[in-house]
Amino acid sequence: MNLSAYQTAPNKINRSVLIDSLVRMLREDIGARFLKNEGDHYVELGEKDARKKVAHALRDMSRMAQKQHESLIRMERKVSKAAAMTWEDLNTKLNTTPSRPENDSLSDGFIPSLRHQQEPMKDQSLEDDLYGWLSNCMS
Hints:
Layout: H1 2-8, H2 12-30, E1 35-37, E2 42-44, H3 47-83, H4 87-94, H5 124-138
Antiparallel strand pairs: 1-2
């Protein structure tokens, strides 16, 4: 929840207010302390350094969430592209000879492991099956 508030904050001032409220809540409501290792002992940080730590953590989590989102989008594009592949496209991609059964009524746009399916690839579970099959083939 705090990460989404941080990511949607329209400007630096709003992010600063959010960070201040987080530090205050952590210290006062939860009793958290912000510490720094000073060799053989720890020193409690002041308000400014605590805000820096919280801001840094939120930036890191925001970057990580953005990378995961971008990765998911790339994966969805790969799955969609693979779902549209024909048998010949798949065989060319995998550098194999065509092995499509003669009596197979499979139309283009389907993959071998899902030839029992009669509907196009629209169901999420079918896309998950497709991704798993392609991952095994590509590795």
